[in-house]
Design a protein that fits this description.
The chain has about 290 residues and is α/β, with parallel strands linked by helices. It has 12 helices and 12 strands. The chain has helices spanning about 5-20, 25-35, 40-45, 55-70, 85, 95-105, 120-145, 150-160, 210-220, 235-240, 255-265, 280-285; strands at about 25, 70-75, 80, 110, 115, 165-170, 180-185, 190-200, 205, 225-230, 230-235, 250. Strands 6-7-8-10-12 form a 5-stranded mixed beta sheet, with helices on both faces. A 3-stranded antiparallel beta sheet has the order 1-3-2. The chain has a two-stranded antiparallel sheet with strand order 4-5. Helix 1 crosses helix 2, helix 1 crosses helix 6 and helix 9 (about 210-220) runs parallel beside helix 10 (about 235-240). It starts with 5 loop residues before the first helix and ends with a helix.
């Protein structure tokens, strides 16, 4: 079986988000769709590029098309939600979804299933913003992949400190099960919990064996761990990280790392552009 294209994933994605209660993170939504595709592990792990698998790539476009069709929306915090229109629809015609998306892109129509579309100018702005978004992400990832291992560890140390960790120490000792450091998370300014972390400046997908080895090194030292990578995590790695009865390991993949660096302003600066619009109605009422 080949990896399904976005058109084949519209209805599985719609069914998945309904099953998840009408909202989901990207990872939750992807995992729910994957459960019902009957793909092999090899097919699921097939790479599109160093940042995502082919399936993740197709699912990303699936979400975009369903959003244009008016069934999905997403928040600034990366949560995808069903719209009121999406709640009333159980099955879509893939050809109609694709046709509506391209109509929107070309600015030939003013409506999508009863919902106003952007003007052609707004579509062009949105496309330009998408290009700029992809450009800075690619440039930042290239920078990360050229860092020396110890420099990447120091960057992760800074990221954790900026995120609220205290007493963050980089150990980086070889033969230590991949543990690169430890930090303390404080709750309410009173309770402190040690978190062991591993930094993997990595292209491709991190396998489940890395998570198992890391967890083995955690025993007796901490109850929770964190693995940060510039790559992705295999499906088996994600399942291993949350395996019942085992100490949990949190995962931060390359895309999430880019978002976190942007959020914290580490190596990235976000410039706000002032937009001024004239209100004709103001002058009509004078």
């Amino acid at each position: 079986m080949t990896i399904p294209k976005k058109e084949e994933l519209y209805n599985p994605a719609l069914n998945a988000i309904k099953k998840l209660g009408g909202s989901a993170s990207i990872s939750e939504l992807d995992e729910e769709v994957i459960k019902n595709l009957h793909l092999t592990d090899k097919e699921i792990a097939e790479a599109h590029n160093e940042r995502m698998t082919e399936l993740e790539y197709q699912l990303a476009w699936t979400r975009t098309y369903l959003k244009a069709f008016g069934l999905f929306d997403n928040t600034e915090r990366g949560v995808w939600v069903l719209t009121s229109k999406g709640k009333d629809i159980d099955v879509v015609d893939p050809r109609q979804v694709t046709r509506v998306f391209h109509t929107l892109k070309k600015g030939k129509s003013g409506k999508i299933v009863g919902k106003n579309l952007e003007t052609n100018g707004e579509v062009e702005i949105a496309e330009a913003e998408a290009v700029l978004e992809e450009t800075w992400r690619e440039e930042l990832m290239t920078r990360l992949l050229t860092l020396a291992p110890d420099a990447f560890e120091r960057l992760c140390q800074r990221l954790l400190r900026e995120s609220g960790f205290v007493e963050v120490k980089v150990t980086g000792r070889s033969g230590d099960g991949g543990i690169d450091g430890v930090g303390i998370v404080r709750l309410g300014g009173l309770l402190g919990f040690p978190i062991l972390f591993q930094c993997k400046r990595y292209k491709g997908s991190v396998p489940s064996s890395v998570i198992r080895d890391f967890r083995g090194a955690m025993i007796g030292r901490a109850d929770r761990g964190l693995v940060i990578t510039t790559g992705t995590f295999s499906r088996e790695a994600k399942l291993e990280a949350t395996r019942d009865g085992a100490p949990p390991v949190d995962l931060l993949d390359g895309e999430q790392l880019l978002d976190k660096l942007k959020e914290l302003g580490l190596g990235v600066v976000v410039k706000k552009i002032e937009q001024v619009s004239v209100l004709p109605g103001f002058f009509n009422d004078i």
